[in-house]
């Protein structure tokens, strides 16, 4: 699943692929925005952990869980 995170006062977004489900990512984002956690922590497929302060979140885009098709479609 593709995840893109916009950070306030930063011209670039943080984009990565994760094996977490959309519900897990949405739950982590909701907890950070509700003040239950001061940080949003997500990890990618390679094991890299991304930590973003909840106060600095501009947006979080959660992509689809479908895998991309490669090649020609008939």
Description:
This is DUF3107 domain-containing protein. The protein is of the alpha+beta class and 74 residues long. Helices cover 16% and strands 36% of the residues. It has 1 helix and 5 strands, in the order E-E-H-E-E-E. The protein has one helix at 22-33; strands spanning 2-7, 13-17, 39-43, 49-53, 57-62. It is elongated. It starts with a strand and ends in a 12-residue tail after the last strand. The model has no long low-confidence stretch (mean pLDDT 89).
Quick overview of this protein structure:
The protein is of the alpha+beta class.
Please write out the topology:
Blueprint: E1 2-7, E2 13-17, H1 22-33, E3 39-43, E4 49-53, E5 57-62
Antiparallel strand pairs: 1-2, 1-5, 3-4
- What does the largest sheet look like? 3 strands, antiparallel
Order of helices and strands: EEHEEE
Average pLDDT for all residues: 89
Strand content: 35-45%
Which radius of gyration do the C-alpha atoms yield?
14 Å
Order of adjacent strands in the largest pleated sheet? 2-1-5
Instruction: Please report the total strand number as a whole number.
Output: 5
- Count every helix, treating DSSP H or I runs of 4 or more residues as helices: 1
Fraction of residues in helix: 10-25%
The structure class reads alpha+beta
Measure the end-to-end span.
25 Å
Organism: Agromyces lapidis
InterPro entries: DUF3107
Pfam families: DUF3107 (PF11305)
Protein name: DUF3107 domain-containing protein
């Amino acid at each position: 699943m593709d995840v893109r995170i916009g950070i306030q006062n930063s011209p670039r977004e943080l984009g990565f692929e994760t094996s977490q489900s959309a519900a897990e990512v949405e739950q982590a984002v909701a907890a950070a925005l509700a003040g239950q956690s001061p940080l949003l922590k997500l990890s990618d497929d390679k094991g890299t952990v991304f930590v973003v302060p909840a106060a600095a979140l501009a947006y979080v885009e959660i992509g689809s869980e479908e895998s991309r098709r490669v090649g020609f479609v008939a």
